Amino acid sequence: MTAPMLEISGLTVRYGPVRALNNISLRVDRGTIVALIGSNGAGKSTTLKALSGLLDLEGGSISFEGEPIERMAAEKRVARGMAHVPEGRRVFPRMSVWENLQLGGYTRPESEISEDLDHVVSLFPVLGERRRQYAGTLSGGEQQMLAIGRALMSRPRLLLMDEPSMGLAPQMVELILETVTAIRDEGTTVLLVEQNAAGAIRLSDYVYVLRVGEIVHQSKGSEIDDELLKTLYLGHDL
Fold it and tell me: Which residue has the higher pLDDT, 230 or 94?
């Protein structure tokens, strides 16, 4: 078996007295989409924040491309090849679409920014059409495209995506999920946190299920049917 791109071992995170993640371990192989699913409060977003350096760890290790990164600063993880699309999009509303995208490329050489912008526009043509528009005036779906595009500007090898379909109309949800597959097909590995469990399972190579800070199931997406999914979410023993 080849070495994973990302490997987490014994990851534990607390919010004050509350243990949000309890000794979780997972791996993400290069060139795959791995989904992390679970109900609200399961610890999905906490996992991504810990991976991107936004939370301190109580215990455990994180290895990215064979290098331990649990003590690495968040900005260095971006430069190392990991980008995070946060829950809620978090675009800069009073900056233009183009300015938001250019900020995403702050780790890239100036000579490559134009090429990176062209790549983002090839994925999301509407961003090119609205390049001068304030990000805060975009629709929710367009802001999600912008958040994804901003992350891609750093040319990540691993993209952490937190709830990209949240709050979007069904048609836009399908477009965003199709884009996740397109990003993987272009060579970027994806770790996807998604409340739309059925959609995430459908496009993922491998799935981990979190419940109250612990991984309770892992398998290929194709091995999870509706009955198993209900069992996992309702919290019954397998």
Answer: 94
Helix count and strand count (H, E) for the chain: 9, 10
In contact, 42 and 19? CB cutoff 8 Å: no
| Nearest alpha-carbon partner for 150 in 165, 135, 133, 167 | 135
> In a 3-state reduction of DSSP, which class is residue 88?
coil
Residue 212: CATH number of its domain: 3.40.50.300
In total, how many domains does the chain have?
1
The pTM of the full predicted model, rounded to 2 decimals, is 0.90
109-138 pLDDT per residue, tens = 777 888 889 999 999 999 999 999 999 899
**Cβ count within 10 A of residue 237:** 5
- Rounded CA gap, 236 and 214, in Å? 14
Instruction: Write out the residue range of the structural domain in which residue 45 sits.
Output: 1-81+158-164+188-238
Helix (H) or strand (E) holding 83: strand 82-85
Evaluate whether 14 touches 58 at the Cβ level (below 8 Å): yes
Residues ≥6 apart with Cβ < 8 Å to 41: 212
pLDDT, tens only, 11-45: 999 998 889 999 999 999 999 999 999 888 889 99
Q: What is the mean pLDDT of residues 66-76?
A: 94
Joined tokens for residue 96: 């233009």
